[in-house]
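Section: protein folds

Sequence with per-residue tokens
===
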Amino acid sequence: MIEVIQGRWSFDDFKRWTRGESNAELFGDLYSEDPDAVDLNILGECGDAGLLELISNPNCRERLYFASLLVLSLCNIFRSGGGLPFQFSRFLGIESREAYFDGVMEQAGRVHEKCRVINSMSSSGDPAIKSFYKQIMDFRHDKVSLVNGFYLDCTARFDLRLFHDPRGSFEKVRQ
């Protein structure tokens, strides 16, 4: 008989399931109807540290699936480039200094927690976890290159023709 877990699964439910101690259906009808909801439930209940705990067991059931969720979550640190203090609509202008700083600090806290999880992987003896750690650490260098490339692309595409000085006193340095 298949075990039925009512409502949202807890982290302990996921641990039992990944160790094979439960035969409940994790990927049942709900997953086929709304896989994102299931993924978000797992991320919400387990968190990054919990997912790492699950995949640290080499016998983890669906280890690849849980590792892929952890990749999606941890790689968010590379999307978290400091936002600018402007409202989404340019007509609304700049947000208050306090609101901006609060948002920056909140985001920095989330990034730091993810980095703590990543750092904890460095001491793992599991080759898969060690490989995960090395790959994500290598991505840091790729991000720097992409950000620098984006900056150079923006400066090269900037159109200043409306500032043209008919006297010709300034020549564009970058061509």
About this structure: The chain has six helices and no strands. The chain has a mean pLDDT of 82. Residues 86 and 92 are 8 Å apart (CA to CA). The longest helix spans residues 127-157.
